[in-house]
Amino acid sequence: MSLVIMRVMDQEDQLASLPANWFPAQTWTLRVGAGGMNNTTRFVEVGDRTYVLRLYETHRDTNKIKFEHSVLLRLAAIKAELPYDIPMPLELPNGGTMVTLGDGEGKIAALFTFTDGENPIELGLSQLHEMGKAVGQLSAALATINMELKPEYAPYYEIEHIHPSCKPEAIRTFCLQAPESFLPQQEELAYIFGRYMALYAAIPTIRQLPHQLVHGDINGSNMLVNEEGQLAAILDFEFVTIDARVMELAVCLSDLIDPSLSEDRLKTNCRTFYEGYRQFIALTQEEKGILPLLIELRRLDVFIHFLGRYLDGVDPQGVLVDIITNTYEKTKWLQEHDTLLQFDQM
To answer: Its Gene Ontology molecular function terms (predicted)?
Structure first.
């Protein structure tokens, strides 16, 4: 039996034993189901209740998890203001909300409440409006929370902190002196680096915008809808931090930008989402004006994240090539259609 298979089996055995930390005197079952990209997920059945067991794969940092869980628990106190679910970490009998595996790697696990639903696939205008409202409601709720703990994740605009292997010089070298295997993407990489520098120049302006807690990764994969298509939950607060308030909206709109759609349809989709959002958040003119650039920032953040994964040997070349193409197409499209997102006129 190969070492890799043995490690997988060992991890499954450890996962199977983890619920005992929360339910020492109860019987449970563990099942595999759909999960996120960054972490290992299992579903725990205890009586007639279901919970979500998450094994954090992206880091072993207890401070990051403690901050995430603290924000969620603070949100629980104002849950009545949110007409949808958010995951709540379950406290262990002896206190705390996380367990460190004895696997020699220091992986961390936590148990969360479960909400039944599916990720949205196609969104009509009424759903986009309701989801815009939901994001506005969450942003308004997060604005009321003052954390004593310091956030571990940097804001989006601190691009030198996106990935430890992607400091500014490493990004410059890769984009402007691409390895031979990436020469077919040379033009795309040079364009991406130009947008990176434009963003870098705008950082002093972004720092002056209103700041607060933001989820930072609201997209279709982190939302659940019920059988009627209504929003049931916003999930995965792993990257919650303090950032420019408007970045929450920029992340959502970035997910809606699909260059294959007509300009009229894209404009309608984005404006409909924004109309829902603005019912709860009144952006300043400065926030509205810089929104198109922040949508680009989200795309560049994804590129830098996957560049780091490639440099670390986590992803093969093909994955990064796809990300380069997607980043180039979306940032170029945004530059050519910047008038589409002029929310400062609203």
So the answer is: amino acid kinase activity
Q: What is the pLDDT of residues 312-328, one digit of tens each?
A: 998 999 999 999 999 99
The tens digit of pLDDT for each residue in 160-187 reads 888 889 999 999 999 999 999 999 999 9
Same domain? For 92 and 165 the reply is no
Give the integer Cα–Cα distance in Å for 333 and 129: 24
Render pLDDT for 30-64 as a digit per residue (tens, 0 to 9). 888 665 556 788 999 999 999 999 998 877 889 99
Shared-domain flag, residues 160 and 304? yes
Chain-centroid distance of CA 8 in Å reads: 26
CATH of the domain at 43: 3.30.200.20
Distance CA(331)–CA(33), nearest Å, equals 34
- Residue 25 CA, chain-centre distance (Å), reads 35
Q: Is 305 helix (H, G, I), strand (E, B) or coil?
A: helix
Please report the pLDDT score of residue 8 as a whole number. Answer: 46
Helix runs in the chain, H state only: 3-17, 62-76, 125-143, 168-176, 186-207, 247-256, 263-277, 285-311, 317-336
Neighbour count for residue 97 (Cβ, 10 Å): 20
Element (H, E) at 16: helix 3-17
178 and 209 belong to one structural domain: yes
Counted domains in the chain: 2
How is 90-141 classified by DSSP, letter by letter?
A: PPPTTS-S-EE-SSSS--EEEEEE----B---S--HHHHHHHHHHHHHHHHH
First to last CA, the chain: 63
CA torsion through residues 233, 156, 240, 107, sign = positive
Tell me how crowded residue 294 is: count the other CB atoms within 10 A of its CB: 25
Q: Is the dihedral of CA 122, 127, 131, 132 positive or negative?
A: positive
SS3 296: helix
210 & 153 share domain: yes
For residue 63, give the DSSP letter: H
> What are residue 241's DSSP bridge partners?
214
